[in-house]
Amino acid sequence: MSWPAMVWIGGAPGAGKSTIARELARQCDLPLHPIDLWTYAHLDRLPPLRPLADELAQGPEYAADAFVQTARLRLELVVADVRGRALGDVPALVEGPQLFPSMADGVSAAVWLVPDAAQTRRAREERLARVDDPAGHTRLEALLARDAVLADRVRRETAERGRVLIEVPAEPDWAAVGRAVREAIGTVPALAGGSELRRQRQYENLAACTQGRLWQADLGLAELPPYPFACECGTPGCTATWAGTPEEYDARGTEQWLSGH
Questions:
Q1: Domain check: are 160 and 208 in the same one?
Q2: SUPFAM superfamilies annotated for this entry (predicted)?
């Protein structure tokens, strides 16, 4: 497999990866590529997958193995998606629990975050509080058991391969965690300000819109929680966001570029 330039932030669910990756990408002018924003797009390119409820019913070890197996299948799609962005030497900041150290031989800059069990529970409960998802409440304990197995797997693989692991405690100092992630990744090439940065932020926002709509339809949600869309002003180091739904993003009318200012 030919690897485009990438920086990875992986780790177990509930570790704050998505928030930290968004902040880091915007501070450092890196293209952001959260794997979860391509979940539904990937389903059309994967073989049929067993329903999550069926996997969880087989126990946490089985469910964790199934998650890793699917993650390996998706890795090729992730690489193809990043390559399709035509970023040249600028690495995409790829983020998601699907990234495991055993898959990262072609990635030099990478870090994994593993949360304390209490932090994992808090993160999952906070997500459930934002949407009306009865099935999510039903499978919460089974997901937490699977998450614990995945966390141990990440710990083991980082130790075996000498990769960077950051443990996220029950009461995280998120600023400190963010600094540790940035230090682990180091200095990498950035997007040029102006049209290049603007286009990549718009690309990411449109991906979030597509994923949000498909997620809403899949779960039958009456409405979506606001998403922190990136500002498309093109100014280097801009961390401004605009909270809204896909419909609100589209309803901006004739504005070509979203401003978070």
A1: no
A2: P-loop containing nucleoside triphosphate hydrolases
User: Residue 259 falls within a domain, yes or no?
Assistant: no
pLDDT per residue as tens digits for the range 139-188: 899 999 999 999 999 999 999 999 999 999 999 999 999 999 999 999 99
In a domain, 147, yes or no: yes
Question: Residue 145 is part of a domain; what is its CATH number?
Answer: 3.40.50.300
132 lies in the same domain as 177: yes
Domain co-membership, 164 together with 99: yes
- Same domain as 117, residue 239: no
Do 167 and 74 fall into the same domain?
A: yes
Segments forming the whole domain that contains residue 69: 6-185
Together in a domain, 216 and 139? no
Q: Is the pTM of this model over 0.90?
A: yes
Query: 3-state secondary structure string, the chain?
Result: CCCCCEEEEEECCCCCHHHHHHHHHHHHCCCEEEHHHHHHHHHCCCCCCCCHHHHHHCCHHHHHHHHHHHHHHHHHHHHHHHHHCCCCCCCEEEECCCCCHHHCCCCCCEEEEEECHHHHHHHHHHHHHHCCCHHHHHCHHHHHHHHHHHHHHHHHHHHHHCCEEEEECCCCCHHHHHHHHHHHHCCCCCCCCCHHHHHHHHHHHHHHHHHHHHHHHHHCCCCCCCEEEECCCCCCCCCCEEEECHHHHHCCCCCCCCCCC
DSSP lists the bridge partners of residue 111 as 9, 164
User: Which parts of the chain have pLDDT scores under 50?
Assistant: none
